[in-house]
Amino acid sequence: MAWWKAWSEAEGKSVTGALNFDPTPDAQTLYKAMKGLGTDEQAIIDVLTKRSNTQRQQIAKSFKGQFGKDLIESLKSELSGNFERLMVALMYSPFQYDAKELYDAMKGVGTSESVIIEILASRTKAQIKEIIKAYREEYGSDLEEDIKSETSGYFEQILVCLLQGERDNATLYVDTALALQDAETLYAAGEKIRGTDEIQFITILCTRSATHLLKGMEK
């Protein structure tokens, strides 16, 4: 989800929205861009990427009020591929979109484990808390309980552990001595013995930052 990272960073830093904003003409522009045969993708880009998330929510409300249609559903109907995913993602906050991706990964038959791993293993403590909150607000369900019902074994334990938000945030500073100690612990728990001490792996992988783990792997 490299595109998600670029989008979420833009949401947090650079998209400040339009001055003298009026959602009515923006909604009309989007409607015209998707009306009839063909789609004016550039018009959609020009509107959605130059408005703040709050402004996009107002546009969606105006779109429904003027045309009786849901903007997100219209985007899904008219667009496809990664372009559709990105434009639809813009209509959510990053936390809401993560919650949606997790929900979609677990609904129906089967579970998209790669999506769950990518989200939970790459978000900060604060982001995990916001995702849990957004999931509960949007779907009226507890994310941890849903994950427990859809996964099992050590995989379930790792995911539940990550949900507790105990993992260190990534920083430029890494305690090299501790990173080396952790690397030795993992080696002793895996390669050095017959079988594997899964608890050691779970404890370290779920509480140390990515930069910390990478430092240990360098040695």
Automatic annotation (TrEMBL):
It holds the Pfam family Annexin. The keyword Transmembrane helix does not apply. GO terms for molecular function: calcium ion binding; calcium-dependent phospholipid binding; phosphatidylserine binding. Keywords: Annexin, Calcium, Calcium/phospholipid-binding, Metal-binding, Repeat. The keyword Transcription regulation does not apply. GO terms for biological process: endosomal transport; endosome organization. This is Annexin. It comes from Eurypyga helias (Sunbittern).
